[in-house]
Write a structure and sequence with these properties.
It is built from eight helices and eight strands; from the N terminus they run E-H-E-H-E-H-E-H-E-E-H-E-H-E-H-H. With about 220 residues, the chain is an alpha/beta fold. Strands 1-8-7-6-5-4-3-2 form an eight-stranded parallel sheet. About 45% of the residues are buried. It binds D-xylitol-5-phosphate (DX5) and zinc ion.
Length: about 220
């Protein structure tokens, strides 16, 4: 069954701590935190001080999804703020991608590598030995509430096959447009972690929404 990572981009920012506590108590597995710089993506969201402030509201692992240029300049700050997993984009301008991945590892965090919809997942292959998680974007990053792009689904099997071939046990997360319906397709395609903003935070009942996402794994086998 897939794990569920509510994306706080869809939370009420005026009471973010309470929102993080709410979904943590409702059965989430991770907290997915979207960091945007207004340059790599058009939007600007949150930075390390906010992550630090949220730390006391949940014991769940924090995934910092960095949609920023030059992530290498900010790894230390995100690690120190209490992130557990730091995801960077393969498309992001940076000194040296391998070096950034190493910096994340050296910071004590787990290492995630994200791939945008237009980017062939094969481009990530040469870095797989350095990562603990692969993130397949199912929307073009920048905003919540966008429509799921089913054409990215085959990437999951492609990267999983390569991981298996190398004997690596690395989970694959999918992010963008995940709801009760698209979660079934994502789970069937092999996603191990479902990041979902709007569907979890804007639903009447977060516990129910999280359960639906998690059960999408079982349903997808039918
Ligand atoms: C998109 C972000 C996603 C987003 C998901 O740029 O990386 O994590 O918050 O939001 P929904 O689930 O509403 O598509
Ligand atoms: Zn995200």
């Amino acid at each position: 069954m897939p794990k569920v990572a509510p994306s706080i981009l869809a939370a009420d920012f005026a009471k973010l701590g309470e929102e993080v506590r709410r979904v943590s108590e409702a059965g989430a597995d991770y907290i997915h935190i979207d960091v945007m710089d207004g340059f790599f993506v058009p939007n600007i969201t949150i930075g390390p001080p906010v992550v630090r402030s949220l730390r006391e509201y949940s014991k769940l692992p924090f995934i910092a999804h960095l949609m920023i240029s030059h992530p290498e300049r900010h790894i230390a700050a995100f690690a120190e703020s209490g992130s557990d997993i730091i995801e960077i984009h393969i498309e992001a301008e940076q000194e040296d991608l391998r070096g950034t991945l190493r910096t994340i590892r050296d910071s004590g965090c787990r290492v995630g590598l994200a791939v945008n919809p237009p980017t062939p997942v094969e481009q990530a292959f040469e870095y797989l030995d350095q990562v603990d998680l692969v993130l397949i974007m199912s929307v073009n990053p920048g905003f919540g509430g966008q429509s799921f792009m089913p054409e990215v689904l085959p990437k999951i099997a492609v990267v999983k096959e390569e991981l298996t071939r190398r004997g690596l046990e690395v989970p694959v997360e999918i992010d963008g447009g995940i709801n009760g319906d698209t979660a079934c397709a994502a789970s069937k395609a092999g996603a191990d972690i479902l990041a979902a903003g709007t569907y979890v935070f804007k639903s009447e009942n977060a516990r129910e929404a999280i359960r639906t996402l998690r059960n999408s794994g079982a349903e997808s086998k039918h």
